[in-house]
Amino acid sequence: KPKPFTFDCIFGPTSTQEQVFNEVGSRLVERFLNGYNATVLAYGQTSSGKTYTMGTEKMCQSHDLGDEGIVPRAVSYLFEKLQAEETNRAIQSATSAIPAFISFIEIYNEELIDLLNDAPPEARPAITVREDMKGQLIWSGVTEATASSVEQVMRYLEQGTQNRATGSTDMNEKSSRSHAIFTVMLRQEKWSLNVRALIGKMEQKAVSTTSQEGETVVLQSKFHFVDLAGSERLKRTAAEGDRRKEGININAGLLALGNVISILGDPNRKKIVTHIPYRDSKLTRLLQDSLGGNSTTLMIACVSPAEHNLIETMNTIKYANRARNIK
Fold it and tell me: Which family does it belong to (predicted)?
């Protein structure tokens, strides 16, 4: 029996990477620059094109610019906007932007691994997640690299991608065996008018504005680019040994994320106090501030057009449809 599903945008097999970014990606960069946390999630079965869409695949010299995914395009758009703001600041002295900070981690078999730290595993600090006094998540032990250009960010992306865990299964020759989170952080200083003081001066018919009528506000925002490992059925991937263990942990993390999404998207949640199981997995714990608060989150559901993948496609569509109900 046919069942309808509603989404904000649908892209077919002939859609380009540029179309995807212009339709759904550029708006998140604008929100990010305005001080909001932003997140892009790519979800779907293994070998459905998540890593390609995100643009976090291993890069090579023959890389076609038309195939660039959301991450490279968002970074280019971000620095283009920052450059325009910097030029404007030089004229008006209204805004100053500090270079971006980059981190790149993966969740492999429920362990957090810093992809930008080339030290041996035993020499790396343990990565912990805690909350500050304001309830904001802080990742301790993660490398925060400074970047002031698109080229620097892309070098960090390539470095982390080369360190990421991949493996071969019957469904994908280069299957991602971990969930990866590439994060861009921005700290901006913006000068804000003190409205009450300004109204007082206007009542006194004084129109000049000095620093006493305003204050410098620091905006700190994060942009998470999340390339989830693909959900998979062990029967179809024929995974054994380490590949089998990886697949079980991948599915466990995605199940925990699905449970959180189901509770957050439940229209009756506000009527009944419900526990949200963020701590059931490392993935949901890291994405806690992306699924609520002042965040703007986009989920891209990647599906296969092949008929023999119908069950996985339906599961992906149902999963994404529940995510769309989150307010």
Answer: Belongs to the TRAFAC class myosin-kinesin ATPase superfamily. Kinesin family.
Strand 37-44 relative to strand 295-302: parallel, antiparallel, unpaired? parallel
Concatenate the DSSP letters of all residues of 39-106 into one string: EEEEEEBTTSSHHHHHT-SPP-TT--GGG--HHHHHHHHHHHHHHHHHHHHHHH--EEEPPEEEEEEE
**173: burial class by Cβ within 10 Å (0-12, 13-18, 19+)?**
exposed
User: What number of other Cβ atoms are within 10 A of residue 44's Cβ?
Assistant: 25
Q: What local confidence, expressed as pLDDT, does residue 267 receive?
A: 76
Identify whether the C-beta of residue 177 lies closer than 8 Å to the C-beta of residue 129. Answer: no
How far apart are alpha carbons 177 and 109 in whole angstroms? 9
C-alpha separations of 296 from 37, 112, 189, 240 in Å: 6, 24, 21, 38
What Rg value do the Cα atoms of the chain yield, rounded?
A: 22
Provide the whole-model pTM: 0.83
pLDDT in the model for residue 58:
56
Distance CA 186, CA 36 (A): 10
Could you tell me the two tokens for 12? 């077919």
Distances (CA, A) of 309 to 5, 23, 141, 303: 18, 27, 40, 9
User: Which residues are documented as binding site for ATP?
Assistant: 44-51
For the chain, list residues with pLDDT below 50. Answer: 60-62, 92-96, 170, 207-209
CB under 8 Å to 217, separation ≥6 — which residues? 189, 190, 191, 192
In the prediction, which pLDDT does 233 show?
A: 63
Binding-site positions read: 44-51
Helix orientation angle between 70-92 and 150-163, rounded to the nearest 10 degrees: 150
* Res 203: pLDDT: 58
Q: Distance (Å, rounded) from C-alpha 156 to C-alpha 169?
A: 27
Amino acid in the structure at residue 88: N
**Cα 65 from Cα 202, distance rounded (Å):** 53
